[in-house]
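Postdoc handover notes: sequence design on the structure in folder B. Input tokens:
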């Protein structure tokens, strides 16, 4: 019954988008049954499977009702109710309900089945602890991100955030406000690729895995936006679940729970629920790491290959996998033939380059990055330029707006030297945390954690951009989870942990509000 329920659940997500305003109609039922699924989860998987089945039946039934029944009822009260369901309120309930049901479905998938490496009682206890920690980190952090984002949009007005971008604002009124915390900046590029492909050459810098997922909902702009937000949320829940199990395996459950909160409330964690590939990349990189840690080299190679198809620097995940493999051979285990699975990781990148080669340019992502996005890749150059501009930014802030100690672009969001100075100093602060975190991971964590942190920070710090050398560095750092694991080991005592989480949450709220209203964040 669980399998049937999950299959029908998927259909219930797909079918409403084919109808006129279908999500408005199915929304209240999805919201109610999704919430009921989560409430019944501790009672067992069958209860959740049954709720999924009911959600599917309700979705299909209400869709038929929407297509066959005019917007009126046998009484004025029902007529008013029907109209409300077709309004922006109904759409808001639909989005919220779809997120709840998606979370319930992911939890069902994560808790179903049995593993061969542990007894059932141990497995159930471990998975329950991981799911509790992951779900707590997910809902609490996303509530903060969404609340801050909506407040930020309402403070400046929706018309002031994004102009002329119907692909990012496919609805109207309250619905566009509701999705604003997840749709800004590069979200437009991923949505465009999902709907129209790589026709524009400047899109080729974006790797294809995430847009392929968005393509599943690309039959309308609204469906694509909803699909993007749901994919990001589901992937983030999976990433947190796997991260908790990974850290608990090496450092214990207490540090694992703290790590989840540090990752979920990281100041740039807002991108884990936006239409960006960050959450998908985090889930795949942690999945590859965890699989290698358990000795499942085929799964590790597959996850690593997908991670390499999600981002240009995704191939870096091969570094910790090689370290873990070498450690396993030193411990006497005969895994040499299985090392071939690790070759899948670079094949993920090569697959996309080959696709571009078939269209005339094997190095199209690098050329697009340089030509259209002004990014240069030189080892260590980002650190040098970022440090230089951080010093200039301090001089700029001291001198005030009347001086131009810091060269600024002639137009755009960073044309104000003070805004540019703030962006450069923010980037440099994240660079400092990344360097300290990588060094700390090398000194205090298992070798694979340190190797991954150093390699990842070195790669993302080796690109530079005119005017803002470390642009996007804070966002890229959000997925380098060994830095947060190291921080968790250094926060000794409840007071230090509360202060660190509170500070991080405040910064997350500020950045979320800025991102939702269209200001440059990372």
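Designed sequence:
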């Amino acid at each position: 019954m669980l399998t049937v329920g999950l299959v029908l659940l998927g259909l219930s997500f797909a079918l409403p988008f084919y109808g006129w305003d279908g999500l408005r109609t199915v929304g209240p039922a999805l919201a109610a049954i999704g919430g009921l699924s989560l409430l019944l989860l501790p009672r067992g998987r069958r209860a959740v499977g049954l709720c999924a089945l009911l959600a599917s039946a309700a979705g299909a039934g209400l869709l038929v009702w929407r297509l066959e029944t005019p917007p009126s009822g046998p009484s004025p009260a029902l007529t008013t109710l029907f109209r409300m369901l077709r309004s922006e309120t109904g759409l808001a309930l639909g989005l919220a309900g779809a997120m709840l049901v998606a979370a319930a479905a992911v939890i069902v998938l994560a808790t179903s089945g049995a593993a061969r490496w542990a007894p059932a009682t141990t497995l159930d206890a471990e998975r329950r602890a991981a799911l509790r920690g992951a779900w707590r980190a997910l809902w609490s952090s996303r509530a903060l991100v969404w609340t801050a984002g909506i407040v930020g949009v309402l403070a400046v007005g929706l018309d002031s955030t994004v102009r002329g971008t119907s692909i990012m604002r496919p609805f109207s009124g309250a619905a566009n406000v509701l999705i604003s915390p997840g749709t800004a900046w590069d979200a437009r590029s991923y949505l465009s690729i999902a709907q129209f492909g790589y026709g524009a050459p400047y899109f080729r810098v974006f790797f294809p895995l995430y847009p392929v997922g968005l393509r599943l909902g690309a039959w309308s702009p609204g469906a694509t936006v909803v699909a993007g937000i749901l994919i990001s949320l589901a992937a983030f829940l999976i990433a947190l679940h796997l991260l908790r199990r990974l850290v608990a395996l090496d450092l214990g459950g207490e540090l694992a729970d703290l790590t989840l909160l540090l990752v979920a409330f990281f100041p740039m964690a807002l991108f884990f629920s936006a239409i960006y590939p960050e959450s998908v990349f985090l889930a795949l990189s942690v999945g590859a790491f965890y699989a290698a840690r358990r000795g499942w080299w085929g799964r590790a190679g597959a996850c690593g290959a997908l991670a390499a198809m999600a981002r240009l620097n995704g191939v870096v995940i091969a570094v910790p996998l090689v370290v873990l493999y070498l450690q396993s051979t030193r411990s006497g285990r005969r895994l040499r033939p299985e090392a071939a699975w690790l070759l899948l990781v670079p094949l993920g990148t090569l697959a996309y380059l080959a696709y571009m080669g078939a269209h005339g340019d094997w190095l199209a992502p690098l050329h697009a990055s340089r030509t259209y996005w002004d990014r240069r890749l030189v080892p260590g150059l980002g650190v040098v330029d970022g440090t230089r501009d951080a010093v200039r930014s301090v001089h700029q802030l001291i001198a005030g707006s009347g001086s131009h100690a810091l060269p600024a672009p002639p137009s755009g969001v960073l044309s104000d030297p003070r805004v540019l100075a703030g962006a450069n100093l923010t980037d440099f602060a994240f660079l400092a945390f990344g360097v300290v975190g990588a060094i700390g991971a090398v000194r205090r964590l298992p070798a694979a954690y340190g190797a991954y942190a150093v390699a990842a920070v070195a790669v993302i710090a080796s690109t530079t951009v005119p005017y803002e050398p470390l642009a996007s560095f804070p966002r890229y750092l959000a997925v380098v989870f060994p830095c947060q694991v190291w921080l968790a080991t250094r926060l000794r005592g409840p007071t230090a942990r509360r202060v660190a989480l509170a500070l991080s949450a405040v910064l997350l709220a500020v950045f979320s509000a800025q991102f939702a209203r269209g200001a440059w964040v990372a």
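Context for whoever picks this up: The two ends are 45 Å apart (CA to CA). Don't rerun without checking with the PI first.
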